Amino acid sequence: MARRIVLAVLVLIIAVLGAIAIPLGTITANQDKRAFRDEAVASATTLANVAEERLTDGSSATAVNRAVAELAKRGDRVTVLDARGNTVAGTAMPPPRAAAHLPLADTGGPAVTYPADDWILVLAPVRNDSARRSAGTVVLARPTAAIDRQVTVIWALIGAITAAGLAAAALVAIGLARWVSRPLSALEGTAQQLGDGDLTARSPANGGPSEVRRLAANFNQMAARLQALVHGHQITMADVAHQLRTPLAALRLRLDLLAQDSDQQMAAELAGAQEEIGRLTRLVNGLLAVARAENSTAAPVRISLADVVSNRVAAWRPAAEEREVVLTADVEPTEVRMGEGQLEQILDNLIANALDALVQGGAIWIAASAAGQRSRITVADNGPGMSQQQQKLAFRRFATSETGGAGLGLAIVDRLVVSNGGSASLSDTRGGGLTVTIDLPTAPRGRALRRGGGLFPAAHSEHSGQTRPSRRSPGLDENQPPDRS
Description:
It is a single chain. This protein has helices spanning about 1-55, 60-75, 105, 145-195, 210-260, 265-295, 305-320, 340-355, 390-395, 410-420, and strands at about 75-80, 85-90, 110-115, 120-125, 135-145, 300-305, 325-330, 335-340, 365-370, 375-380, 425-430, 435-440, 450. By secondary structure, it is α+β, with helices and mostly antiparallel strands. The protein has three domains: about 1-150, Beta-Lactamase (2-Layer Sandwich); about 195-295, Orthogonal Bundle (Helix Hairpins), CATH 1.10.287; about 300-485, Histidine kinase-like ATPase, C-terminal domain (Heat Shock Protein 90), CATH 3.30.565.10. Helix 1 packs antiparallel against helix 4 and helix 8 (about 340-355) packs antiparallel against helix 10 (about 410-420). The longest helix is centred in the N-terminal third of the chain and has 56 residues, at about 1-55. It is rod-shaped, with a radius of gyration of 49 Å.
C-alpha cells in the first residue's frame, strides 16, 4: 500500500512538474534566442546606417571602422560590402555561406538572419535615400555559443528546481504513506492473529489518520466482544458436560444395579432404557463436538497430510479388519495449515461413518493430493450411499437417514473444514457408495512443519466418547444401526 501511495504521488507530481517546467523552459529559451537574434539584427542595422554615409557620400571610413572594431571586440565578424560586392570595411570574412545571400544588396529589403552552424548570419542592406537600389550590404556573423550556454543554464536550473520539487514530494509521499500504512499493517497483523485463534490480540489505535484510529478502535471492540462470546460458549460447553454427563452416568449405573435383581421382562425393559441413555450420551457428546468445532480457535499449524492419514488408517485398521472391511490409503506428500488435532478429528468422523454403513466385504479408499494452492482429501466407500436429497442435507445438524444415528458426524466435519478456509462436498462413488471430498488450503512454504500425531492421538468423534479407536468399532453398541450422517 505504501509503495502504491508513493508511486501515485510521484506520478502526479511528475505530470504536474512536466506540464509546467517543459513549457516554461521552452518559452524562456525561445525568448532568449529571439532576443539574441533581434540584438544581432539591431547591431547590423546600426552598422548599415553608419556605413550609408561612407558608401553614398564617400565620407571618411573612420566611423565605419570604429563601429566594426566595437563589434569585433565581442567576437562578431563583420564585413561591409558596396553595391558591386567589394569589401569596404570589416574583419575577416564570415563563413562562405554569406556569399550565397549577397544578392540582398540589390533588393533593398529589411535585414535577414540565417543560421550557419555555430553562427548566426545577419545581412542588412545599406539604404540609399536618393536611389531605389541599396548602396551595399552589411554582413554580420555572431557566434551562438553564448546563447547556447544561456539556454543550457536555463534548462539546468529548471531541471534542478524540478528535481528538488520531486525529491520533496517523494519525502512527503513516503512520510504520508508510512503514516497511513503502518497502522493498517498493524491492524492486518492483528486480524491475522485473531483469525489464527489468538483472541487476546489487539491493534494499536494511537497512530495514523483519525479514520484509521477509529477503525482500529472498532476492531478492538469487536475482538473483545468476540473473545467474551467465545469464552461464554466455552463455559456453556463445560457446564453442559458437567450437568448432563454426570446424571446420565449415574442413571445408567442405577439401571445396571436394577437389572441385576430383575426378572427377564424387567431386564429387557431396563436394557432398552440403557440403550436410550447410551444414545442420549452419544447425542450430548456429538453436540459438544459440534460446539467445539464451531467455536474452534486453535492456532493453525503446518501439518503433513501423509503422516496424519497414515496414522489414522493405522489406528482404524483393526476395527475395519474386525468387520472384514478393506481400508486403504494413497497419499501424495503435501501439507495443509489448520488447527492442531482437527484433521485427525475430520478423518475419524469420516472413517467411522464409512465403517457404520459398510457390511462384510466392503472397502474404504482414502486419497490425498495437492491441486494448486489447495490440497484435496477424498474418503470413498462402496456402501449403500445417499440419495441426492440426503446429500444436500447431510451437513446439517441431526440430518440422518438412520433411526439410531445422531446426524452430527458430517456436521462436525463441515464446521471444522470451513473454519480452516476449506470446503466439503458429497458425491456418489462410481459403482455405488458415497465419496466425501475435502478441499483445504495448502500450507505456504517456509513455516515450521508439525508432523502428524502419534499412532493414537485424541480424536473427538461423534461416535465415541473415547479418545482412540479400539479393536471394536469405536464406541458402537453391537445393536446400534449405522449412521450416515
